[in-house]
Structures are given as structure tokens and as C-alpha cells.
Amino acid sequence: MDARAVMKADALFEAALGIVLAVGAAIGWLGAGDFPHPVTAAVVGIAGGLLVVLGGALWRGRIGLPVLAAGNALTALGGIVWLLLASGFSGAGGALVAVTVTGLVGLAVAQAATLRA
Q: How many whole angstroms separate alpha carbon 110 and alpha carbon 37?
């Protein structure tokens, strides 16, 4: 996969996750009961909106691949720590964070491989 394809894949991942979060919060599928305190439905919705904006920026190439790879790796690490140390996840909330971490790790690995090529 070339750098452009990896960036587009990341843009789609971020935007899709953002839509799931924003819509999930808006219609009551995701909220305070799904994540540890102090996360609320508003926080979930705002995070979703910001991820959609991030996806758009990535699609337009506004963020460099080295920064993106590091950001994905650090965010995945943060997600792992959050899952391990925090209590209060619902099944859906924990699964969503776990799937997100898995996706971020995959993207970071692909981005690192692209940088080395």
C-alpha cells in the first residue's frame, strides 16, 4: 500500500468512527452508561464530530504521515490503558474502544511500513 492509500484508509476509518459516535450519541445508542465517568453523551457526540473533521483533513492530506502514525500509535496505547485501568464500560462501549484500538494499531503499522519503504 502506498502512502496516499494509507492516508485515505485512515481518513475513512476516522470519519466512519466519528459518524458512529455522533449518530450513536444523538439517537441514544451510546452515552454515559457505555463509558467510564465523566464521559457523557455530549462528549461522545463532540468526539464523533471532531473525528469526522479529522477524517476530512486526512482525506485532503493536511496531516503528515509521520505525525499520523505517531498519533495513531499513541492513541491506541491510550485506549489500551483506558480499557485496562478504567471501570464502567458497557459491553458495547468496551467493544467499540477495543475495535478502535485494533484499527489504530493496524493503521499505525501500515503507516510505519510505508514510511520505511
A: 33
Whole-number Å distance between alpha carbons of 27 and 30: 8
| Buried/exposed 44-76: b ≥16 CB within 10 Å, e otherwise | bbebbeebbebbeebeeeeeebeebbebbbebb
Least Cα distance to 73 among 43, 111, 47 occurs for: 111
Mean per-residue pLDDT for 85-109?
97
Burial class (CB in 10 A: 0-12, 13-18, 19+), 84: exposed
Q: Which of 1, 2, 4, 117 is nearest to 61 (CA)?
A: 4
| pTM to 2 decimal places | 0.94
Give the span between the Cα atoms of 40 and 46, in whole angstroms: 10
Q: Is the CB of residue 68 less than 8 Å from the CB of residue 96? A: no
